[in-house]
Amino acid sequence: MHETTSENDKIIELVSQYIDLSVTPFNKSERTVVKVDKRDPMYGGNGIVYLLQMFDEGELTNNRIGAYMVFFNKGDQAGFHTHGTRNEEELYIVMHGEGEYTEMTKKDGIIRTKTLKKGSITAMSGEGFHSLTNTTDEILIVFVITTNNPK
């Protein structure tokens, strides 16, 4: 389900209270979020996660660099998922709030759970699975960088 422009503006305004959402693309005018994508649920997780996309489609190599994931409520979660089937690697950089990051393999189950807070960085590659959950009453804002690893 897509939000209306008014609802998108409210989400952007709220997140802007915590971090600067300005983007300065090379040789282009400064701007802000180009799209808000509501995931309800995200990869089968709990609650709602919003993706605030910072670049237009086609502007970057794989169109997923520079998206923020925003978890508004305690318990909001991006459920377990992998990017290995798409040959991607993904970094999470926590900009605000705190959450629980969990990694697992299909074969061995959960291999690590770690508390992430402002400044924490995680890296996921290959066929591994990962999940992130907001564990506090504060908003959790994560900057996501996804890369393509050509075969």
Automatic annotation (TrEMBL):
Ranges for domain Cupin type-1: 60-150
InterPro entries, alphabetized: Cupin_1 (IPR006045), RmlC-like_jellyroll (IPR014710), RmlC_Cupin_sf (IPR011051)
Pfam families membership: Cupin_1 (PF00190)
SUPFAM superfamilies associated with the record: RmlC-like cupins
Protein's recorded name: Cupin type-1 domain-containing protein
Organism, as annotated: Flavobacterium sufflavum
